[in-house]
Amino acid sequence: MVIFKKEPAVTRLSVISTQALAESRGGREREREEEEEEEEEEEPRVMEGTIITSHSLAELCENYFTLRHFSVGSYNTSVCNAGSVSTTVARYIDRTYDLLSSPSTAEALSRVAAVFEVVRAGVLVPLLKVAVVLCLIMSVMLVIEKLSMAIIALYVKVFRRTPEKIYKWAPLSQDPELGSLSHPMVLIQIPMFNEREVYQISIGAVCKLVWPHDRLIIQVLDDSTDLSTRELVQEECQKWSNKGRNIHYISRDNRNGYKAGAMKEAMDLDYVKKCDYVAIFDADHEPPPDFLLRAIPFLMHNSDIALVQARWKFVNANECIMTRIQEMSLNYHFKMEQQSGSSTMAFFGFNGTAGVWRIQAINEAEGWKERTTVEDMDLAVRASLQGWKFVYIGDLKVKSELPSSYKAYRYQQHRWSCGPANLFKKMTIDIIMAKKVSLLKKLFLLYNFFFARRIISHNVTFLFYCIVIPFSSFFPEVIIPKWGVFYIPTVITILNSIGTPRSLHLIIIWIFFENVMSLHRCKAVFIGLFEAGRVNEWVVTEKLGKALKTKQVSTAAKRSPNKFWQRCLFLELGMAVVLLICALYNFIYRSNQYFIFIFPLSLSYFLMGFGFVGTHIPAAK
Question: Which helix (H) or strand (E) holds 217?
């Protein structure tokens, strides 16, 4: 039963007719009393246990009524000479009050409350409970995967299971009779796209490699759309050609297939047929002079090895906190994932650069394919299914550059997350039907390499820590065990910090940074799985090269600073607001203290959303 009481007015309107207004209200009150007497005979229509009950609704209307008279009285005091305005305001407030206090409105609100309660109890709570169970299962799977990789890496380090001890390896020696013919023919490819700041790094380093010049062919694959950059790269190639290097400048009129398309076309040239191996370096990578002397012997003395992968070393790791955090993640990738895969299954994902391939293995795997944005991983999986083995050399390091702007890093992570998910979808049947690999290796590829590391890892971070845990604050019926909220994340965090001991003090920042990035990785995974709009988007990671040291001041002087709104990222800001609401609700109404985690997470989204992370390159005038 809904009963609305109307208290006497506390003040009178001095401008409008008080008597007329009182008569009008009295008539409405008599009509309202008659309606209430009729409703007393009917059954209550509001379900018990609803969030918004008839009693609470009546209190709401009474409070509004009191506020209404207070507002009118206050308004009368300040605008006593504005009769028409006062009349309009009074009528507007009366109509609003009548609308809220009418039985039909109360009944509608009660029905909405009842429906919401049914949806909450029958849909939202069960769904959230299922999500908690699934996230806990994925968390356990992920922590087991990371523990297994850590144990293998520890075993390799303690017992010094280096590649030189596992495989045949002997240094190349100069045969006086054969001369340079004792060295195999090696092709080097340097794909680039508008790499004005770094093109000299890779070309110069490759041309300085210790290897007979007549046994080395260098291809600079320039897909640049900037004509001035093309001219600079071509001049650099001509400079080294004049010094006796066998270097070829190759450009295309289109970017079909992007990096994979450029390398595929270059591999079809006639002079490549006399080469045995191909080394690949991105434009910002600087191999040491003895790179080929360290890597090629593995391929020469082991006929079943297809790929030798070196480790990356970062020249700008100390540029900002964001690059320090990237260093932590990539060091873990090399020291744990690549090392464990090489030591157990002789398989890991090719990193796209700083590696040497056996050309025969590339041909048997049907060469470079353009179907995904991770052509390097695609080739590695197909070559592995042909029975080839891979070797990772952890102490052979190639200098490279980390993206220092948040925008560039987001694009890179989208490609690195979307591509593997899309490849997983395309190659699942091929892996299952492969005849040249064991069942154990098939399981490793499907579960460990793809599902656990490329699907679960990205999804559980965002869904569990950025969605399920924060939103559980609104549902006290949903209980998350402490081991899932605290213990498992602690173990994962400790394992990720092993790769970079010098950055241990940044581990808390790393946690929140990775949680924010999980938004884009999770989105990219679903785009790859369902082949949505940006599935094949390829944005070359922006590199600064020498500008980091020599051109920052002059470049900034020639460019106008970015406007504040241009730096804002609304997806991050939207998540920040949602998480802030969850944190405030948890702080006020719940006792599980999740707000201790949710508040800093919301702040992290705000910082990245407003563009306070990474370096910013001013926009060109």
Answer: strand 216-222
- 223 catalytic per annotation: yes
Q: Is 304 a catalytic residue?
A: no
Please give the Cα distance from 162 to 159 (Å, whole number).
9
Structure pTM? 0.81
Torsion on CA atoms 582, 583, 588, 594, rounded to nearest 10: 110
In SS3 terms, 416-469 reads as HHHHHHHHHHHHHHHHHHCCCCCHHHHHHHHHHHHHHHHHHHHHHHHHHHHHHH
Tell me whether residue 140 is exposed, middle or buried, using C-beta atoms within 10 angstroms of its C-beta: 0 to 12, 13 to 18, 19 or more: middle
End-to-end CA distance of the chain: 69
In one letter, which amino acid is 219?
Q
Q: What's the CA gap between 4 and 29, in Å, rounded? A: 10
Tell me the pLDDT tens digit for each residue of 364-423. Answer: 999 999 999 999 999 999 999 999 999 999 999 999 999 999 999 999 999 999 999 999
Among 222, 282, 284, 376, the active-site one is 376
Q: What whole-number distance in Å separates Cα of residue 366 and Cα of residue 361?
A: 9
Q: What is the DSSP letter of 250?
A: E
Choice among 223, 282, 284, 378 that is catalytic: 223
